[in-house]
Specification:
- GO terms for molecular function: aminopeptidase activity; metallopeptidase activity; zinc ion binding.
- This protein has helices at residues 7-15, 29-44, 49-62, 194-197, 220-233, 268-283, 313-323, 329-334, 386-398, 420-424, 449-464; strands at residues 66-67, 79-84, 88-93, 103-109, 114-125, 128-136, 149-156, 162-167, 177-178, 205-208, 243-249, 254-256, 262-265, 290-296, 337-341, 344-345, 368-370, 374-375, 404-405, 415-416, 429-434, 436-438, 445-448.
- By secondary structure, it is α+β, with helices and mostly antiparallel strands.
- Strands 1-2-3-14-4-15-21-17-19 form a 9-stranded mixed β-sheet, sandwiched between helices. Strands 8-7-11-5-6-10-9 form a 7-stranded antiparallel β-sheet.
- The longest helix has 16 residues, at 29-44.
- The model has no long low-confidence stretch (mean pLDDT 94).
């Protein structure tokens, strides 16, 4: 006969939280997550914001989405999208409730840290050709040396034509790299602080060493590289002045662990959230409230520019959309609710001293909700209200979605921001939710497949919810 629970045990069950690894509560969850993440790995192969937009729009069209028409009154069930400069994207499913009752918005960013080319990138030194770079976003520079890189981007030619470039991803393509110093000669290098082991001006990408066959030419290796690019893409050196080119890790997304429970890949900050957001949008068929899913650019460098969330592109779109119904954008946004979908740092026992265990996120405990981000004294944060947290909490709990809370490390250690602050500035209730990630901002980030899958389930529950915001 089983022992009866003591009063203390009963009280503990009623009053205390007991976070668990999800594998202890649902043995079938991993199989569902593994299946879901097969398409996620395909999404991860889109490594720049332009490639994500190019990949997404054909899928939207197959799912019945049409291009947005300003001034048109859409009816429940209509689906449409707005492409902003091929670098940010807005997707909409019109709900049953009047637009005047508010919107359900999910925003994620589709840019990731990388090595951008300088405007005049190509040079030759000691019979080797290189591209000069200016790193984009927060990186540990030493992590980008001696790994295979691929080249991505677009070049606008003198005649106005824009050509797309992707080299190093397909079978048989060449790879590229930033070189590093051999240990035998690195005594002085290894004494430097980590940020100086590889300096920004040393992040030059090796692209060739074979000379053009003409003794009368100076800079033969550079000329040979330029000739190869010209033959394939029609580029001359001056065209780099009107280009957006970058280098990213050439790694393919891979299963990690003997149990295949994790994904290792470049760009999971923030592709994990973007994919979950996207899948929730297209799987939400007849929502109560109109759903708006936003892919934003430039988050890693402060969300500036016409494709970042500090731009007016988001608010301008909402205004164009709701004005067809005779509504004011400020009135609609005040009644709306937004999920800022971005990753958080999963606790890593190898570096446990920077985490505060009762307020950090863990792999396999579901999506992490961050009431606030920012750094130290909560600078540069949104800081969701109690009512905002309560609204999301009720949706997740009523739909049986496991979730956790998390801060980005100990208070005085560091911290970081998301686009939540740039969204809530529109008088729009906003809270962060995302996937816990190991090795964030490295060339090879790690995420749990169950966390990615459950973030999708959480956003879908939010989009489908009939709960009214108080």
């Amino acid at each position: 006969m089983a022992d009866k629970k003591s009063e203390g045990q009963k009280l503990a069950e009623r009053l205390l939280m007991k976070p668990k690894n999800l594998g202890e509560t649902d043995g079938s969850l991993l199989d569902k997550a593994i299946e879901f993440c097969e398409d996620y790995k395909k999404f991860l192969c889109q490594k720049t914001e332009r490639e994500v937009v190019d990949y997404t729009i054909p899928i939207l069209k197959k799912k019945g989405y049409k291009e947005f028409q300003m001034g048109k009154k859409y009816t429940p069930g209509n689906k449409f999208y707005m492409n902003n400069r091929d670098k940010s994207l807005i997707m909409v499913t019109v709900g049953k409730r009047p637009i005047s009752e508010g919107l359900r918005i999910g925003v994620s960013h589709i840019d990731s840290p990388r090595l951008d080319f300088k405007p005049n990138p190509l040079f030759e030194d000691t019979d080797m050709a290189y591209f000069k770079t200016h790193y984009y976003g927060g990186i540990k520079k030493y992590q980008w040396a001696a790994i295979p890189l691929s080249l991505h981007g677009v070049v606008t030619l003198t005649n106005g034509k824009t050509v797309k470039i992707k080299i190093g991803e397909d079978e048989g393509d060449p790879s590229f790299c930033v070189t590093d110093l051999l240990p035998h000669l690195a005594q002085n290098q290894m004494k430097k602080p980590a940020p100086e082991i590889i300096e920004g001006e040393q992040l030059n990408i090796l692209v060739g060493c074979w000379p053009f066959g003409d003794e009368k030419v100076v800079g033969k290796v550079k000329l040979n590289i330029m000739n190869l690019l010209n033959e394939k893409y029609g580029i001359v050196e001056k065209d780099f002045l009107s280009a957006e080119l970058c280098a990213v890790p050439a790694f393919k997304p891979q299963d990690v662990g003997l149990d295949r429970s994790m994904v290792g890949a470049y760009g999971q900050d923030d592709s994990s959230c973007a994919f979950a957001n996207f899948m929730a949008e297209i799987d939400c068929k007849e929502p109560e409230f109109t759903t708006i899913t936003v892919f934003a650019d430039k988050e890693e460098t402060g969300s500036d520019g016409p494709s970042g969330m500090r731009s007016f592109f988001f608010r301008d779109f909402i205004e164009d959309f709701v004005s067809a119904y005779g509504l004011q954008v400020r009135h609609v946004l005040k009644k709306s609710f937004c999920l800022s979908c971005d990753v958080n740092a999963a606790i890593d026992p190898a570096f446990g001293d920077v985490f505060e265990k009762t307020n950090c996120s863990f792999l396999n405990r579901g999506p992490v909700v961050s009431k606030y981000t920012g750094s130290r004294g909560k600078y540069s944060t949104n800081d969701a209200s109690a009512e905002t947290m309560g609204f999301l909490r009720k949706i997740l709990d009523e739909n049986g979605i496991p979730w956790q809370v998390g801060e980005l490390g100990k208070v005085d250690i560091g911290g970081g921001g998301t686009i939540a602050a740039d969204i809530s500035v529109h008088n729009l209730d906003t809270v962060d939710i995302g996937v816990p990630v190991l090795s964030m901002h490295s060339p090879f980030e790690i995420a749990s497949k169950t966390d990615v899958y459950l973030l999708y389930k959480a956003i879908l529950a939010f989009y489908n919810s009939k709960l009214e915001k108080k």
